[in-house]
Request: fold
Amino acid sequence: MTDYEARLREVEREIIARRPEHSIEPSLDRIKALTGLLGDPQRAYPVIHITGTNGKTSTARMTETLLRARGLRTGLFTSPHLTSIRERICVDGEPLSAERFVDAYEEVLPYLALVDESQPASLSFFEVLTAMAFAVFADAPVDVAVIEVGVGGTWDCTNVADGAVAVITPISIDHVRYLGNTVTAIATDKAGIIKPGAVAVLAQQPVEAAEVLLRRVAEVGATVAREGIEFGVTSRQLAVGGQLLSVRGLLGYYEDLFLPLFGAYQAGNAACALAAVEAFAGASATGEQDGPPDEPAALDDALVRGAFRIMSSPGRLEIVRRSPVTIVDAAHNPAGMAATVAALDEAFAATDLIAILAVSEDKDVPAILDELEPVVSELVVTANSSPRSADPAKLAELASAVFGPDRVRAVARLDDAIELGVGLADEADAGSADGGPPGTAVLLITGSVITAGDARLLLTRATPGEPAPGPAGTAHDDPGDDLSDDIGDEA
Reply:
């Protein structure tokens, strides 16, 4: 182990020892104090700011890929991480090295105590990482930063940055302790990232959410771009290892886009990412003009096709083994699980679906189980590495009420659960006990970003910057959607 790797372990322990991500103290005072001491680095570059309930990390990664394909130097801040804390802060598509991560922490370290002493509550784990990302991007320097919120929007610490483009992915019920128990309340909080003069790129939303978001657009004088109206997917068909799309953008029409990801929801995420980059390109072109601006042109068609081909979303319907087909997925709320189930049904001809579920105890577990029950043959419930993981015995009790006790098995550890799940899938593939034909079994490991990351590490040993081995036709070129589920991509 190098000196920097050893120091990285120390830094991780110091950051993790701070107030955890799931302990939220709604205020921008702490992060404003810290970024002020750092010289407000978040104002050194334009920002594309992304919130929503499901799909934030996927959309952020897609947006960054398109920007980088245009020759821009990019910063990307996402959360939570799958296997390494360094994944959260990327420059030009690469997670920070151990050396750069340590240096970034030590650059902000002298200011942390000053802020802690001056505020009623100390800086949290997430606030420290956010400040580090802002500073790293200013130092790089980047041409544009893609910033994913942690939870909500208005009071999220990333909201000290003013996005030239604000992207709102689909909103549904989640994090009711912090955001409220209605779609209207949640949308109101998330709408806070839409700033005066920005372009608001809105994914398809429930009516209640759309009303709130459009009201915010009008109040602050923003411009709106709505999926299904100003832009959207016009055609979609399955392809080997993904799907083939045609997308009507804000500036042009783009055909024959191969997206190496599964599910209608990922097609929608990709359309939002494309619209965000078009909106950013249009705003940039307008800002560079001394006289009347020219009409912004469509993005280069070959550039867009090339960017789509390399888009990835690790831990989101990611195939990590071929025999049996094993998929890890970060769905951790009912809406996310519904999207996952729909994508599985569309893309995989599974005669048997074996599911391994490890979920945080504060989630709507009965509703998640309701989404899984119609399609899952056998369910293995277990725990992931988070202290917030639901107890397998309690989870089994809830699952038995939905699935019936004969279809549910409880295993204390995820590695043992995976071993059992692989065995069940192999048995299903070998054929039924009465001599029937062999089936096509799929093993799904889901319920949490933490679950997806733990399983990915156990099954692939992939480290940041390395792809997880997938079948021919997949293109997972990057490693890996709040509060260790609750801070980050919620899809």
Q: What stands out?
A: The first strand starts at residue 47 and ends at 51. Confidence is low (pLDDT under 50) at residues 463-491. Residues 318-460 form a domain with the Protein-Tyrosine Phosphatase; Chain A fold (CATH 3.90.190.20).
